[in-house]
Design goal:
The chain has 13 helices and three strands; from the N terminus they run αβββαααααααααααα. A three-stranded antiparallel beta sheet has the order 1-2-3, with helices on one face. The relative contact order is 0.05. It is mainly alpha-helical. The N terminus is likely disordered. The radius of gyration is 35 Å and the shape is globular.
């Protein structure tokens, strides 16, 4: 309405007869006739109809430009509000995660499961997995949540391949799915898991969790029993392999202490197990690691 009013003020015939377009007696004839006519207090020679059309075209062009500006400003405001809204949800989600509110976090993030934002999606993958790990989650529901988590992690990676967290949680979720797909799929997935953990570390060399999980990968294959190695060789020409020394280069938490135990360095094992035991727990899985570290630490103390 404001734009219409502005357009109307720009058209002389919209201002009333006192200042409008007034034709002289000889100028009001046929459509193409030129003559003398008055615009406001000035006398003009020419075709009034052509002038009227030109003026109208200019006014409409101005209206179009004004509309474009209004729409552009509205789009910028909408985009800014959208970004602000995402950041607010992320802040709330991080607060709930740090507080150990696993189910509340999942309920919050599932409201945005159709989001195209990688930061929201990998957090939703993590939340889905954490709910799956809860002791009160049924086996059937756990399986659904594990696959749901993988789907969210995959979408996060598709939206942003430069997100170290998306690579990390994609690797974790693939590992979880392997529990339902048999030994062959699990071994095949091991290559993919390693690739994404390594990519996560490359993108963020300071992320202790990715380094820790890469250590778990190495430790797992260093400790693989001989019969599993034989099965792996039957399925793959070059199955995944690693050593305790390689794992030691990655470990940061509980399994680091395990590795020192395997290498018969009890003093360093006790040091890292103590760190693992006292590390803040956010999920049930974290608490399980703390319990395991405490049990291993007791064993180390008894033998000293």
């Amino acid at each position: 309405m404001a734009l219409s009013a502005r357009l109307w003020r720009f058209l002389p015939w919209g201002r009333g007869s006192a200042s409008g377009l007034r034709l002289s007696a000889g100028a009001a004839g046929s459509r193409g006739t030129c003559g003398r006519w008055r615009l406001g207090g000035a006398e003009v020679v020419g075709n009034p109809e052509a002038f009227r059309r030109s003026l109208l075209f200019s006014a409409l062009s101005y209206l179009g430009f004004e509309t474009y500006q209004v729409i552009s400003r509205a789009a910028v405001v909408h985009a800014a509000a959208k970004v602000s809204g995402v950041e607010e949800v992320l802040a709330q989600a991080d607060y709930l995660y740090e507080s150990g509110e696993t189910e509340k976090l999942y309920q919050l993030l599932t409201q945005y499961k159709e989001s195209e934002d990688a930061e929201l999606l990998w957090r939703l993958a993590r939340a889905s997995r954490d709910v799956a790990q809860l002791s009160g989650t049924s086996a059937e529901e756990k399986k659904l949540l594990v696959y749901e988590a993988l789907a969210y992690a995959k979408r996060a990676l598709e939206k942003n391949e430069s997100s170290f967290a998306a690579h990390k949680w994609y690797a974790i979720c693939i590992s979880d799915v392997g529990d339902y797909e048999g030994i062959k799929a699990k071994i095949a997935n091991a290559y993919v898991i390693k690739e994404h953990f390594e990519k996560a570390i490359e993108l963020n060399p300071k992320d202790a969790t990715s380094i820790h999980l890469m250590g778990i990968w190495c430790y797992t294959f260093a400790e693989m029993p001989w019969y599993q190695r034989r099965i792996a060789k039957m399925l793959f020409a070059t199955p995944p392999s690693s050593t305790y020394e390689e794992a030691l280069g990655y470990f940061q938490r509980a399994e680091q202490g395990k590795t020192y135990l395997k290498l018969h360095n009890r003093k360093l094992a006790a040091f890292w197990l103590l760190k693992a035991r006292d590390y803040p727990a956010h999920t049930d899985e974290d608490r399980q690691i703390q319990t395991e570290a405490a049990q291993l630490l007791t064993g180390v103390s008894d033998k000293n």
